[in-house]
């Protein structure tokens, strides 16, 4: 019985008693993320610190929503009589659809719940929108921002406004309590990277003649 008492602990028990440095770091990061997100959710409700700014934040929320962007791009595609404009708009439509699918897949895999202080009064949601990681608005804002800056000729003040809009959309998600800080940061990075995929798969009359024949 004495030798049995002195037997070493199983490896899995040692792991539980001595968590890895990575595990401690991730837990600490998660705690900081939740704390900061709650402190920054100043428009999460009418009674919040900046509750009076909530209607403005919800307007910004709609400006980054997928439906207005999809409908607007599709309408522009139907009304355009320029082959160059149709090519740009068709690729923007492709980018927006790719963004929706990718964000939905990641949300379904990660399944991170939205912050507890979030009011579920969002503009037009689907089933995966109950999850928060990553922020679809932030992903779309970064994607559209980079797309516009590369394919539209804009004066410098307008280019600055486009970048500010993308950043404000991301910040508004945390202020409204819709997302945690890491949801938005990852969303912005994902949207920025997604544009590179769109550029690599760029649709043109040569690469996708059937699509252009429809228009």
TrEMBL record:
Subcellular localization(s) per the UniProt record:
Endoplasmic reticulum membrane; Nucleus inner membrane
Describe the location of the Phosphatidic acid phosphatase type 2/haloperoxidase domain by residue ranges: 88-199
The protein's matches in CDD domains, at most eight in alphabetical order, are given as: PAP2_containing_2_like
Q: Where is it predominantly found?
A: endoplasmic reticulum
Q: Which reaction does it catalyse?
A: presqualene diphosphate + H2O = presqualene phosphate + phosphate + H(+); 1,2-dihexadecanoyl-sn-glycero-3-phosphate + H2O = 1,2-dihexadecanoyl-sn-glycerol + phosphate; (2E)-geranyl diphosphate + H2O = (2E)-geranyl phosphate + phosphate + H(+); presqualene phosphate + H2O = presqualene alcohol + phosphate
| EC number(s) on file | 3.6.1.68
Under InterPro entries, the record lists: PAP2/HPO, PAP2/HPO_sf
Keyword list (alphabetical) reads:
Endoplasmic reticulum, Hydrolase, Lipid metabolism, Membrane, Nucleus, Transmembrane, Transmembrane helix
For this record, the Gene Ontology CC terms, alphabetical, are: endoplasmic reticulum membrane; nuclear inner membrane
Q: How does the record say this protein sits in the membrane? A: Multi-pass membrane protein
Single GO biological process annotation from the record: lipid metabolic process
PANTHER family attached here? POLYISOPRENOID DIPHOSPHATE_PHOSPHATE PHOSPHOHYDROLASE PLPP6, SPHINGOSINE-1-PHOSPHATE PHOSPHOHYDROLASE
Q: What is this protein called?
A: Polyisoprenoid diphosphate/phosphate phosphohydrolase PLPP6
> Species lineage, top-down?
Eukaryota, Metazoa, Chordata, Craniata, Vertebrata
Q: Gene encoding this chain?
A: Plpp6
